[in-house]
Every structure is written in structure tokens, then in C-alpha cells.
Amino acid sequence: MSESILDQRWPWLLAAAGIVVAFLLYASIELDPSQGPADPRQVGSIDDLDQLRDRDDLNILFILIDTLRSDHLSSYGYERETSPFLDELASTGLRFDRHLAQSSWTKSSMASMWTSLNPWRAGITRFDHILPEEVILPAEILRDAGFRTIGLFRNGWVAQTFGFEQGFEVYNRPPALRQKPEVIAKKPTIYKGGTDEDVTASAIEFLRVHSGGRWFLYLHLMDVHEYLYDEESALFGSEYVDVYDNSIRWTDKTVQILIEHLIDKGYADNTIIVITSDHGEAFSERGFEGHGRQVFKETTEVPFIITLPYRLAEGVVIPTRSRNIDIWPTLFDILGIETDRPSDGRSLVPDIVAAARGEELPEADRTALAHLDQGWGQRSTDEQITISVADGNYRYVRTPIDQELMEMLFDASEDPRELRNLSETDAETLGRLRSIADAKLGEDEAYGEMPTREISEMELNQLRAIGYDVGG
Ligand SMILES: [Zn+2]
User: Fold this and answer.
1) Which of 426, 405, 406 minimizes the C-alpha distance to 414?
2) How confident is the model at residue 407, as a pLDDT?
3) For residue 20, how far is its CA from the centre of ligand 1 (angstroms)?
4) Using CA atoms, how far apart are residues 47 and 258, in angstroms rounded to an integer?
5) Which class does domain 5-357 fall in?
6) Average pLDDT per run of 10 along the chain, which is 472 residues long?
7) What is the pLDDT of residue 175?
8) How many angstroms does the Cα of residue 225 sit away from the middle of ligand 1?
9) pTM to 2 decimal places
């Protein structure tokens, strides 16, 4: 049923007339976001969720905001107004309040999210691991269900090089557009590397020319990862953490402009929008900065927001632990798509319904694990596994620090920033969560051991350019 890629107008246009199209698009995304169209969706209730399974016209807009920790969004309790538009989405949709990524490094975390497997089960734990063909990814399932599948990304860890293109009809890194002088002045290096406007401009172009048929559009945004923002978003100062917050504010606006185009093109009442992230970012809470080294709270707690093709009069907040491995089981459940692949995740639909109705939540495994091989970036290093188990208010973390394996236990109910280690005082909880970690780590890879491939110096340099110490 699907036409060939050359019959599709938009990627062809991009390839053949990239510069002209890019320039026109650059002009077109200069719209003032405050002038955007009103939300045309009908008001519905959680009881209407069931009916979505019978619809054959629903699209998915999947927005991955790389390096976005949830506690820096206003709707997740942050005192700064970093995310007015994302908060608005949450206020008429579903917001998962205690959501956890399964790693703190992009490739491992994304492999885990797409496969719905914990990282050691997905098997993508090293810089040169690649997803082989036998792995079944959501884009393949959606393509087979009749969706057009388009992936646009700016992070090299999810490039074709590593097998992440499987199931996508179009999968590319959009070319960098001309940038505003004030943005270049703020960060002279961005002109070469581009910004997320490159991704949203390509997405807007797709929405403009696409006619007929449902679609799955995956956008992987990087401006928060790169601490990029414009003058207007520079609201919070110039310290490291302030700049991070400025970039969230800027990304919030980027997303708003995209979604206003989506509304404008008439997609509001047949599109499910997903906002999430692959990991957070540390600001020396306990001596670590950045991500990809540890799996404490600050690098693993991320947002997860869904808006439905109708508006909820009041947004639903799901209060329990949820995980990136649950995202696709949940979306497939909402869409009524049956899947048959290995999975460590589960559908959160029963939790959504119970939370909306104020009912008791159903019985389920509510532990959320995060995992990282700290030797992921080096050829010669042995495994150095750090793992965390979150269960209710507790979090157990086991991590190698200065050649020693440290165990820590935190209770967020009394210590929201999780800085007080209770490992000496609560041996019972420590033991319980340690056993969960050990039992889970004993599980085998779902698809066998992942193959590796030689990554060229050029590819490695591209990854080094976004801040990773890799390939040594
Ligand atoms: Zn990332």
C-alpha cells in the first residue's frame, strides 16, 4: 500500500531544493507563538479513552527532548516558569508525575525505550553496540499497521549507524538552517551544528505537504542538551543551571510553534502527542555534573506527558512510578494495536483510568530500574555497572565510586533531593531493593548479545563534539 519514498513530496523537496525550502521555512517559523490558533479539540473524559482503539485515523507526534529532567518543569513543581506551553499540554492531558528513564546515556536509554526492555535485557550498553535486524521497534510495528513513519533527529547516538532507523520510511538529520544573528552571538558554534528549529521546520514541512493516511512522527530535540536558547528565553541568569533553564524555556517555545502548526493543519483532533526524555542532567548535587555517568534521581527522572485527540476538562496526574519501557505498551494499548515482542514494560492505561476516577490503583510491578555500564565509552574497559531501583518513595543506588562499590538508600518522602544516605539505618529496605536489583540483573538479554561495529573516527568525532568522551 505504501508508495515509494520518491513519490512522497516532502523529503524529495528537502533533498532537491534544500536551501530554498530551508530559507522559506525559516521565515515561516518566525510566527509569534502568542498569536497561535485556539485549541479546537472537543472536551472528553477518561471514559472516552476506550473508543480510540476503534479509530483508524490517529497519528502520533513523539517529541523526545534530550536531557530534560522533570523537576525543572513548572508542571513538575519547579519554582521557575520554564515550561508554560508543556504545562498547558499537561493541563488538558495526562502527566506521569514520577517517571523514570532506564539509563542516563542516550543510546542505552533510547534502545531501552524503543524495545520496552531494561538496558541489560535490550543489550545496548556500549558505544559500539548496534541494534540488529531481529529487534522489533515501534516504527516497524506502526509501519506494518499502516502508518507513514518519519524520524528526525539531531543526536548521533540514535543515527542509522546504530540501527535506530528500522521501520522508518524517512529517517534523517535535517540540514542546519540559517540562524538569527542574536542566536549565533549567544553561541557561535551553533551555526554549523544547527538547532532544533531544523527539526521542527522539517516536521512543519511534512505536515504542510502530507495528504492522507496516518503517520508517526518522531522528533529528537537537542537544544536542551546543548544549552541553547535565544535572547527572549534568557530569563533565568547565566550560571550553568540558569542556562539550562533558559534552554528549556526556548525549547518550550519551539514545541509550541510546531504544535500550533499542527493545529493549524487540522491535526489536533486526530493526533496523540507524547513528550518525554531519555535522561536528565546533574548539577553537582553530589559532586557529579552532566549525564551518562550515574543513575541517581537527577539524571533519570524525566517528564512523560500525553495529550489525547480530545481535551480533558482537567488534566490527569498519574502519581505512581512509571518508566520509559512502559511508554510503548501504553501507546499500543491506547491505539488498540496488538504486539507480540519481548517486553519488560506494561500498559499504564489501568493506572490512567484509576487516577482519573480517583480509584485505587491496580496491582502491578511499580519498581523502576535504571542502569549504566560506566565503561560504555571505552574499548578496553571492563563492565562497571551502576544500577538504581526506585520503589515508592525509596531509591536504592549501587555505584562504583573511587574503585569502591558504594550502596546508598534514599527516602524522598523526608528528603526530596535524595542527599541523605540511609544505607546504615534501614538495612531491611536496603536488602529488599538490593535483591530486586540482583534478581533483575540476572535476567538474560531478550535478543541475545548485541553485535558491535567499527565506528569511524568521523562518527566518533561527531559524538565527541556533543560532549562525549568516547572510543578511547
Ligand atoms: Zn541524551
Assistant:
1) 426
2) 97
3) 31
4) 29
5) alpha beta
6) 40 38 42 67 97 97 98 98 98 98 97 98 95 96 97 94 96 82 60 83 94 95 93 92 96 97 96 98 94 96 98 96 98 97 97 96 91 89 93 96 92 97 97 98 94 88 83 74
7) 86
8) 7
9) 0.91
Asked if 104 and 292 count as a contact pair (C-beta separation under 8 A), the reply is yes
Delimit the CATH 3.40.720.10 region(s) of the chain: 5-357
CA 66 to centroid of ligand 1, rounded, Å: 5
Q: What is the whole-number distance in angstroms between the Cα of residue 412 and the centre of ligand 1? A: 25
Render 421-433 in DSSP notation, one character per residue: --TTT-HHHHHHH
Alpha carbon of 140 to ligand 1 centroid (Å): 22
Calculate how far, in angstroms, residue 462's C-alpha sits from the geometric centre of ligand 1. Answer: 14
Distance from Cα 464 to the centre of ligand 1, integer Å: 13
Cα of 200 vs centre of ligand 1, distance in Å, is 18
How much is the pLDDT for 75?
97
Place of cell 536542551: 224
Instruction: Tell how far the Cα of 177 is from the centroid of ligand 1, in angstroms.
Output: 22
CATH 3.30.1120.10 positions along the chain are 368-465
Report yes or no: 349 and 330 within 8 Å, Cβ to Cβ.
yes
pLDDT at res. 179: 66
Burial of 44 (0-12, 13-18, 19+ CB in 10 A): middle
* Residue 356 Cα to ligand 1 middle (Å): 31
CA of 310 to the centre of ligand 1 (A): 30
CATH class in words for 368-465 = alpha beta
What pLDDT sits at residue 162?
94
